[in-house]
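Q: Hi! First time doing this. I have a protein sequence and I read that you can turn it into a structure. Is that right? Here it is:
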Amino acid sequence: MKVSIVIPNFNGRELLEKNLPFVLKAKENQENEIIEIIIVDDGSIDESVNFIRNNFPDVKIIKHKINRGFSATVNTGVRTAKGELITLLNNDVIPSEDFLKTALPHFKDDKVFAVSLHEKGYAWARGIFKDGYIEIAPGEETNQAHLSFWVSGGSGVFRRSYWMKLGGMDEKLLSPFYWEDIDLCYRAAKKGWLNLWEPDANIVHKHESTISKFSKKYVERVRERNQLLFTWKNLTSPNLFRKHMIGLFKRLAAHPGYLRIILMAFFRIGTVLKARAKEKKEGKVSDEAIFANF
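A: Yes, that's right. Below is the predicted 3D structure, encoded as structure tokens:
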């Protein structure tokens, strides 16, 4: 199955200079079946685009005129991609020369939506429903592929046809960043599709993230807001949603400042309710069944 690499970029010229040569080297390895590398620039002002054009002419560039956020940037790349599979790589990720060799065979199973690549020290992801909230926890590194609660939007392989059926990442609700890849994979799981982790699909993640360009307080508020938005949209089990509301009021009572996060989320309630109605209609697998896997 042919693969398109999609790399979102925002003011990442220095990261691209260090890491893009490794992606091009991986493209030369026919075992990876890479047919194109697409960089979607999200309104950079650091000469990223000119640098790519001058130094990597074989890389396809798509440029947003304004900064639209991670989800919109990735969606742009996926829409224009020609591959049956999409490999999403952050610009601070270095792939090994054969990083897709063991990931691609998983897609022979029509139920597989996505496969997470292996960054040393990290493994498959566990999804936990605790105190009324959906939380993410790491699994243990093993020598075998494993079911995963989600596949990272910065280092994962996705089946493009299923991505398009899902409508891609939810840029209307979850922009500018956080929980968008979890949301996508959860919606896939509710359709009965599988998210996996492959231990031999090796990458190195330098964690020189674009997100560090924003203030820590702002980033944390967006993270907490999107956790709520994800829950309100996707948790369609009446029993679990009731437990969520109890947990929400307990958290607010213990931390009155949490009201700010609730209000931030509530400003998008119209979009949430519309998306929630769609998920209730289209979901085939219960929330309880998904959490039972972990």
